[in-house]
Each structure stands twice: as structure tokens, then as C-alpha cells.
Write a structure and sequence with these properties.
Maf protein, single chain, five-stranded mixed β-sheet, 3 domains, alpha/beta, about 400 residues, Alpha-Beta Plaits, Molybdenum Cofactor Biosythetic Enzyme, Chain A
């Protein structure tokens, strides 16, 4: 197949469940992040319903300005799964061929799980002539790759877990020959909290002035992610350290995590193995939701989280005092987050033995009209502050 350096990629998501809002299109975001990390610009996402005419029109439109096209969805065994047929039409009305190894794999999968493969399952084993089958290690529908007028096209099933598995086992290697011809780089990231994107950008650009490095920014509430691509020939401790020192100094107190760190995991790692109670009257359960994925993987038998609903009080610091006093006979350590005032205020507390710490906070740009924004911000700031208290770096 011809080689085509991929500088610009597009993603087409197929499924009426996506266009009607029943399911969010997380696949496009997930794939875009992986392509961006490799230096490929992900410049267009389209979502269309299970409609042959609309799918074909979307394929033709995206192909006009893309070096790589990824299609997701519509490879299953039901009547509304006809992505393969539309792709075959787009390729020039090529016929479909039945891939016997795909059917044998399906039958073996059925035997493994004690299932009988019905006739309709065979639909997943037909592919456009000239397409290359890509084995799906996590599901029943194999993916496939083809070229249309020199454009590389990957056609993937819709379930996110299957796309992730296909990326790990095949696609990340398949994309390597398509990478644009530029100097390889290493991506470094910082997540910042409590500062506007524009103000943060000015600090970072001033700190990196003269480096020649590429920078980028991404707002994902409540964080602002700073991205810096360092050329590999400069990616040594000696060359990188002076610039990183400048970045860290410029961003200062706003930096919360670096690279793939997650604040919830960092907080739990700092929690001592003793009985602890967290009382939350501010985030509406978001704090518990934030910690839950890590607690499911690594349960903390000594950690208890209690979500309560209290009427707003003007003095949120006093509300924390009341809660600490109410639970005075409870565990050795108690963390409290309380209050949602009209000015976006909340307060945090910690009692550890005879030590009591209380800190009052306010959401930047107070009087936020969106309670969800307030709660997400307060949740992250609570995890950050409590972790610092545990390490004794914030007293």
C-alpha cells in the first residue's frame, strides 16, 4: 500500500446513539489524544447517524482535507451495522469478501464463553475487497484497514475498550510509518489550577522565550493543562533542566500535577493506614466519585467517606468548626470540606490528634453561576490541600 505522511487526521464516528445524545463520543477524544502525542494534528471530528447517505457524504467530505481517516462504529451483527458496506461503496463499489479466519475466531470465542454463534454473527466477517483485517483482541468484530485514493483509512468497532485494545496491539505500530517528517519530540505536561488560561499562557511563553520549543494549552475543567514538546536532541537533564526550572518558577503555586499524575491517586497514596473519616458537605458527592476508581482497585479498609447535605451558612469556616466538634469522638484523623456560599466560598478542615487546621477558600471569579464548576474546583483544591497537610508542607 502507498505511504502517505499523516500530518492531519480526521475521525468519523457512526451511530444514531451518538447523534441523539444517548452516548457521548469519547472515542474521538481518546484517539485524538494519542495522535496528538505522536505529532499528528487531529483537525476534524464528525458524528453521523446510522444512515448510508450521510455516512458516505461524511467520508467524502473528510477525505478532502485529511492524511489519515479513522472511522468508528457500525461493524456489529445487527441490521443497522453497515459501515463495511458504505466503505466498500466509497472504495469504488468493490465487492465484500468473507474472511474465514474471522469466522473461525468468532466460533472459538463462542466456545470459550459457552455461546452459540448464530447466522447473523457472520455479518462481522465480511470485508471490502483489498482491505486488511485487524484482529480485535477485546471483542467480536474485527477492524480493518484500507486505502481510498491513497488515503489510509482505519475502520474500528465502536466500544471504547475494544478501540483501546486495538490501539495497544496494532494501531500504535501501524501509525509509525505515517508520522510526519519532523524532528521527534517528547511531550511534557503540567496541570494547573486557580489561574486563567490566558494569564497562564503569558507566564509560560515568557519563561520559554528563546527555547524554540512548541507549546500548547488545554482547558479541562477545572484544570488548565500546559503542554511542551521538547526536541529529543535537547531532551537531556543538562539541556532541559534550566528551561524546566524557569517554567516551574513561572507557574509556581498553580501547578498541581505533572505528566500522568492524578491528584486523587496522589492524595490516597499519602493517606496513612489508620482510621480516617472524610465528611463532605460541599461537593454533592463529587469527592467520593473522584476517589472511587482508585478505592475499587485498592480498597482502604480504614477510610470512610460521608456525604452530607447542609443548608448554606455565611461563615463556612465556622461550619467546619461545628463539624469537627460534632465528630470529636470519631477517628484520629478527620477531613472536612464544607460550605457553598453565594460568593463561591468553602472551607477545609483537618483534625489529627490535638492538631486542628482550618482554611477558607474561594473560587477564582467568585459568584460562579454554575454549581457544578464550583464543586469540581472545590474537590480538586480539597485533595491538594489535604495532601499538603498530610506531608506537613502547608500549615
Amino acid at each position: 500500500m502507498p505511504h502517505c505522511p499523516a500530518r492531519r487526521a480526521a475521525i468519523l464516528a457512526i451511530g444514531t446513539e451518538l447523534t441523539t445524545g444517548q452516548v457521548l463520543n469519547g472515542n474521538a477524544a481518546w484517539l485524538s489524544q494519542r495522535l496528538t502525542d505522536l505529532g499528528i494534528e487531529e483537525h476534524q471530528h464528525l458524528t453521523v447517524a446510522d444512515d448510508r447517505t450521510h455516512i458516505l457524504a461524511a467520508l467524502r467530505y473528510l477525505a478532502m482535507d485529511a492524511d489519515l481517516l479513522i472511522v468508528t462504529g457500525g461493524l456489529g451483527p445487527t441490521r443497522d451495522d453497515f459501515t463495511r458496506d458504505v466503505i466498500a461503496e466509497w472504495m469504488g463499489n468493490v465487492p465484500l469478501y468473507f474472511d474465514t479466519p474471522s469466522w473461525e475466531r468468532l466460533q472459538e470465542r463462542g466456545r470459550t464463553y459457552g455461546l452459540t454463534m448464530v447466522e447473523s454473527q457472520k455479518q462481522q466477517c465480511w470485508f471490502p475487497e483489498g482491505a486488511e483485517v485487524i484482529v480485535n483482541p477485546a471483542g467480536t468484530a474485527n477492524a480493518f484497514a484500507c486505502h481510498v485514493a491513497g488515503l489510509p483509512v482505519w475502520v474500528l468497532p465502536g466500544p471504547p475498550s475494544e478501540i483501546a485494545a486495538l490501539w495497544d496491539t496494532d494501531l500504535q505500530y501501524r501509525v509509525q510509518p505515517l508520522l510526519p517528517a519532523h524532528k521527534p519530540t517528547h511531550l511534557y505536561t503540567w496541570n494547573c489550577l486557580g489561574i486563567a488560561e490566558s494569564a497562564l499562557g503569558e507566564l509560560v511563553e515568557a519563561a520559554l522565550d528563546g527555547s524554540g520549543w512548541q507549546t500548547g494549552y488545554r482547558a479541562h475543567l477545572p484544570y488548565i493543562e500546559v503542554k511542551v514538546w521538547v526536541p529529543l536532541e535537547q531532551d537531556t537533564d543538562q539541556d532541559r533542566a534550566p528551561w524546566f526550572d524557569r517554567i516551574e518558577k513561572a507557574m509556581g503555586q498553580w501547578v498541581i500535577t505533572r505528566m500522568d499524575e492524578d491528584l486523587a491517586a496522589l492524595f490516597l497514596a499519602a493517606v496513612p493506614e489508620q482510621e480516617i473519616l472524610i465528611v463532605d458537605t460541599a461537593t454533592g458527592g463529587l469527592l467520593q466519585e473522584r476517589l472511587a476508581p482508585y478505592l475499587r482497585l485498592h480498597p482502604h479498609g480504614y477510610l470512610r467517606i460521608e456525604t452530607r447535605w447542609l443548608e448554606t451558612e455565611a461563615d463556612v469556616a465556622r461550619q467546619v468548626e461545628y463539624l469537627l466538634a460534632e465528630y470529636a469522638t470519631q477517628p484520629q484523623r478527620i477531613f472536612v470540606i464544607a460550605g457553598i456560599s453565594k460568593d463561591g466560598e468553602w472551607a477545609l478542615g483537618l483534625r489529627a490528634g490535638e492538631q486542628t487546621l482550618i482554611e477558607q477558600q474561594q473560587v477564582p471569579m467568585a459568584r460562579l453561576r454554575n454549581p457544578g464548576r464550583y464543586q469540581r474546583y472545590a474537590t480538586e483544591w480539597a485533595l491538594k490541600t489535604w495532601r499538603e497537610w498530610l506531608f506537613g508542607s502547608r500549615e
